[in-house]
Known about the structure:
Elements: E1 2-10, H1 15-18, H2 33-45, E2 53-56, H3 60-72, E3 82-83, H4 100-109, H5 125-145, H6 149-156, E4 173-179, H7 181-194, H8 205-208, E5 217-227, E6 230-243, H9 245-248
Parallel strand pairs: 1-4, 2-3, 2-4
Antiparallel strand pairs: 1-5, 5-6
Helix pairs in contact: 2-3, 5-7
Amino acid sequence: MITFTLTLIRHGETQYNRDKLLQGQGVDMPLSETGVQQGEAVGRYLRDIKFSKVYVSNLQRAVQTAEIILRNNTHCSGMDMVLEPLLRERGFGVAEGRHKEDLKNMANAAGQACRDYTPPGGETLDQVKLRFKHFLQVLFKQMLDVRGSSEQEASSDVPPSGSATDDLQGASAHVLVVSHGAYIRVAIRHLMEDLKCSMPAGVKMSQLLSPCPNTGVSRFVVALSRTESGPVLSGARCLFTNRKDHLEKPQHPE
């Protein structure tokens, strides 16, 4: 069996985020100046975690955020990342490039809640969930394939304290995923509701499933077993979702 942490991070702010415009997959904007600063902040926040693998949406706002995170990392500067199309944002079809209010109006006209509404040409929430499930299959297989001496190496460099490294000591590897707001919300719902992750004490489900801020950090601990038919999830627990401590207090690199 192998136990690893899965850290999900939303990309930094873009000008479209600031202007409340939908990007989806068809609008590929770079980070704004604020987004770069957010990336630097979350990079410093996570700098002491030795990530074993890094998977990133191949849209540039996610790639740029991941590059900044790795550049700030004590152990992973220069590490190769895997550009993974399965981690791309939800496609919003004809609504891409338009204001979020337009999406709400389209949903109202269709008699649906905005969260559940699929614009023409867009992805349904089930389609996004299917992409995430496929990603987990790929991830689980790769994590079992690489288990071995590298596990001990990954765990030995984790500091014993510090908010960004809470609850890492029991894990033998650490996986970083940089993706997008709507995608991460679907992913967390799947982990919590379908895979039955245990919840942090004193936290309501509505809090865990709230919208993820730019560079918000969510973390899960995942245990896998190997069977003849492939990897099997032995257990999982949620440590926290949508944490943004790094944006709320100054950080000074040592």
